[in-house]
Every structure is written in C-alpha cells, then in structure tokens.
# Entry
Amino acid sequence: MSGHKMLFSGLKLWTSGRSRWMSRLPDGCSPKVCIVGSGPAGFYTAQQLIKARQDVEVDIYERLPVPFGLVRFGVAPDHPEVKNVINTFTQTARQSRCSFYGNVDVGTDVSVEELRQAYHAVVLSYGAEGNRTMGVPGEDLAGVHAAKDFVGWYNGLPSCRQLRPDLSSETAVILGQGNVALDVARVLLSPLDILKMTDITQPALEALAESQVRRVLIVGRRGPVQVACTVKEVREMVNLPNARPEMVGADFEGVAEALKDLPRPRKRLTELMLKTALEVPGEKEQQRRSEASHAWGFRFFRSPVEILADPERSRTAGIRLAVNRLEGSGEGARAVLTGEVEDVTCGLVISSIGYKSLPIDPSLPFDSRKAIVLNNMGRVQRAAGLYCSGWLKTGPTGVIATTMNNSFDTARSLVEDMDLGTLDVSVVKPGSQSVAALLEKRGVKPVTFSDWEKIDRVELSRGEAVGKPREKLLTVEEMLQVARS
Amino acid sequence: MAAAAVRSSMGLTLRLSRALPDCSNCPFHRSNGCVSGVSNLQRRGSFDSFRTINRHLQTSKGLYHGEEGRSNAEDPDDVVNVVYVDRSGQRIPVKAKVGDNVMYLAQRHGIELEGSCEASLACSTCHVYVNSSHFDKLAEPDEREDDMLDMAPMLQENSRLGCQIILKPELEGIELTLPKVTRNFYVDGHVPKPH
# Structure
C-alpha cells in the first residue's frame, strides 16, 4: 500500500457529486475491485478493468507467494513461449492502480464476505484446484496420480513436491486424451538433453533421469475423432526424438471416410493421427522408429474399470479397461460398454480426465455437477458485487486465449454495472486498508509484487548457473524467506 | 569464466567449420527473437544444446518472431495504408510502413489486439480476419501458424494470426477485422475447449 493512501485514511470525505477536487484524491471516490486468484483470468480481468475506467483500483489476492497460476504451474516446461504472457501480466501488476498481495489465502486468512465489505466488487478467478476422480477401485494405490498433481510436481507447485511418482516400471498408462495428457506423455518420454534446458524442477529432472518408463499409452473412452487434444501437441509426439508411435490401425476404421465433414481444426488433427497410425513411413523414418528406445500410442474405446494391485496390494501392477463401442458420431458420440475387458500391465497410472473447481466459501452459489460458480456472463447469481472469471466461471477447459476472452467478458459486465449505476461505486469503500488491518491482526503478511520480483531474480540467477531459464524455488518457506530478505 | 571461454571458442570453431549456422545475419537473432539458435543457447550456457538446437523452431526466415521491422520512415514508397475494424465495428485507418508487423502496429495505435506469446506462434490471441481482396496476397501460413489458428475461437476461411503478417507494398489498403468474441459466444452453448 502506498504512503499517500495512508495519509488520507483519517479524512472524512464528502462524496456527493463529482467535484474536481474529489476526483483528484486517490481514496474515497475510486471504485475498488478485488480479484481472487492471480492466474491468467485474474490478470486479464485486472488489465481490462484498469483500461476501461481511469478511476478503478484493482487489488489481486493470491494464496501462494508467487503469481501467475497455471502459466507457472500448468504450462509444460518445454513450452516456454506460452509463458511469454507473463510479461503482459507483469506490466499490469506494475501499474499504479494495480496491487498484488501474495501469501493470502482467501477463505482462510480472509473471507469472501470480508472482501465484499471492503471492496465495491469482488471477482473470483481462483481456477480449479481439484481433480475429477475416476471413481474406480484401486484409485488410491501407490502408482496412481492425477495428471494435475503430476504436472504440479514437475512444475514445482509446492503442494505437489512430495509426490515421488514411481517411474520404475516399463509402461505408463494415461487416462484421458487432452493436451494435459499429452504434456505428461511428452515429459515422460522426452530426452533429458531437452528437459534439462527447461525450467522443469531439479528433483523432477533427477527422477526422470532414473526413469525406467519406456512406453506410454494414452487411453480414451471414445475414438480418434473425439480426442480433446490439439494438433500441435500430437505433432510434438510424432516428432519426439527416440520415440516411435504405436497405434492400433483397427481403431481408425471409418475415420478416413468421416474426414470430409469435419471442421478444419478437427480435420487437420484427425489427418495427422490417421497418417501416423496407418501410413507406411519412408525409409529414414522406418529406421528412426526401429532404433527408438521409447514408444507411445493412443488407445481408443477403453474406460478404466479397476486399478490392479500387486499381490501384496502395495502398488499398481496393472489396469483393467472396459472395451467400448461408439454410438453416434462426432462430438456427441457416446461410449457404450461391450462387456469385454482387457488388462494392461503397468506400474504408473495417470488420470487426466479433468480439473475441478472447489467452492472456497459455502455461501457461493455453486453448481457441483459442472463445478462452477453459478453466474450470468460473469455476474455471480443472487450476489450483487460478486463476479467470476476464468475456469471458475465456465469450467476447466480452454487455453490462455479462451480464458482471456472469458475474463474480458467479465470485466465488461463489471464496467457496465459501474457505468450504469447497477453497482453503486459512490459509496466509500476502504479496500486494501481494511483487509491489511485484518491480515495483520491474524498474523498474515502479504507478499507484494516487488517481493515476488526478488523471488523471480533469485530463480533466474539460479537457473542461469545451470543452463536453465530459471530454477524454481520449491517451498513456500523458501519463497517467503527470499521475499522478506 | 573458463567455461564461458571454452563455450565461445567452441562456438567459433563450429561456425568456422560450418557445422553450425552463423546467427549474426539472422533477423531473429538481431531482434532478440531467437529462442533456440546457437548463440542464445551459448549465452544460456547450454553446452549440450549443439546436438538439439532446433527441435521446435524452424529457422526459415519466412517466419516472423519478435519485434517489428523498421524501414525508412520518410520514403513515401514505404507507406502502407491499413484499416483495422475493431470489435465494435469501428473502422480505424492507420498509416503504416513496409515491414511493420500487423499485431504490434495495432497495439501501437491502441487497437485491442493481444499478443500474449509475443509473436512466437504459441497462442492465437492476435487472430484477425483479412479482407478477401488482400487475403490471397499474403504468403501461405506456416504449418505452425495453422496449428495455432485451429485453436482460435470463430475461425473463418480468412483467418490469420496478426503477428505473422508483415506489411509489404502489395498490401496497401488491407483491412484487418478483429473477431467479435463476445458474451454471445458462450450463450450459443459451451463447447469444451482443449487445454
């Protein structure tokens, strides 16, 4: 919080009308918005709010000491260009009307209700920290992980540090065929030479250096035309050094015929899979494939039924898959059980079937089936002054561009409400001052953006020493230590 | 220190023996837009990178990465007039120059075109529609641009990524329309998107 805000805190301010004298004061008349969550949704919403109205002040609260959410903890280490968006967010954070408060857990350190008292509007953009579960026996066995946790592990999310995935078996099975599943497959099979030049964490790098995993199966309930991944990620698998594709040709029956009716993105993706599965490669590629020590493949029409344990029931030994057939076609096709099952030997099962948002406050109108906060165009239902953006608003799918549009929409709704008076911003609200007082009473010390920049500099310089873009700090304690230094 | 000296002399040896490309003439390198060329990897201290330089990027100079080009500001032959149509339908004429990057040009003129990956073909936020009379004057998109376009909402036949359009005299009068990705997009029925 800046000094001049403290200076004015004791003044009783005349708030009626729009006198020029009033509009020059930083406190009192400025609409104050609080954003919960500092990932793409939070930052894009902040960016648009600040741009749309010259008087809005935005405070972004984040549970971790470090910002950027899934850009930091979700985007794969070998996709550094996707992380360039951090520069855009940094520009927003450095604006005078934007403040970042890390290390503040909304729901525990301060309640949503307290935020609503302090601010004219609260935007919830805390994403999806839970997992959809498979709901099959054996899901809790050693050797089974949610993709979100595996990704969090190699990306340095503090809560996933102790994951210690067992990479000692030859085959890994991934359930789900979205881009997260492909990221996991690619990280499991990428040559160390490539990974060690990325910002993947040191413990993950060491574990992968010892990995015995040679074969990764990416399993989906439906067929090739229904995969949720995109062409770029499939292309990366096809081009992965020292890895050959192993697909089941029969899975592609009828797919070539369906191509002509597919929209362009789906068509290009399906063509690539068809080619990889059915086309006989040229001599050079044949050679490359026969010399490859690793293998990957899609397995279609299979649903998990049970994770099978070794005799001592201490760890995963395999997975039982039900065989499906497809009813209908295209996006709406449904997987129907045939009654047949198939067992696959494997020591690592990663379930990549979707993230899930959690209600951080029981008062929030929440749809547990879709796992989203009930809203109309970003306005939370039956809760004036409460908004949402990002995955919490629309569900946990979409790339950064999708979240950007989604957040811009919420910002538009909020600005419209301010402009039209639906949201009364003439009332004086204390904003971060009152929240700061509450936090101090509760022994919570926020991390500012310049504190984060200290952490950033340490990570960058540690990375430079070992030829990586950054070496991430792995614990909240370490982060706070550097932040306070 | 010694390690750095070894790396730079090894780089020189490899360049002289033509085992590696000379980065000094490449526009990506000069504009600091190169993320996987030899010099960059040397700077980052990656010794083993020589074997796996270009896994991701193609170094064809047809691809555009990084900052916009700068051409002679005074020469009238270098002027290219473009029109942006923003999301509310407003037409905004801009006097630009040969070599300007359509995405950065828009941003310089306050037109709301995002470029979250900073012209590195890793997102689709600079998605624009090109008017039909000029669409065919553009070079064919690289496969990587097509891959990113596939992720853009409201993809059309005349969709391109703004960061890959570099102005040339033939593009005089080009019109670039920003897609209307409004709230109505979701009202149409949420379709699960990849992530």
User: Anything to note?
Assistant: Residues 2-16 of chain B form the longest helix (15 residues).
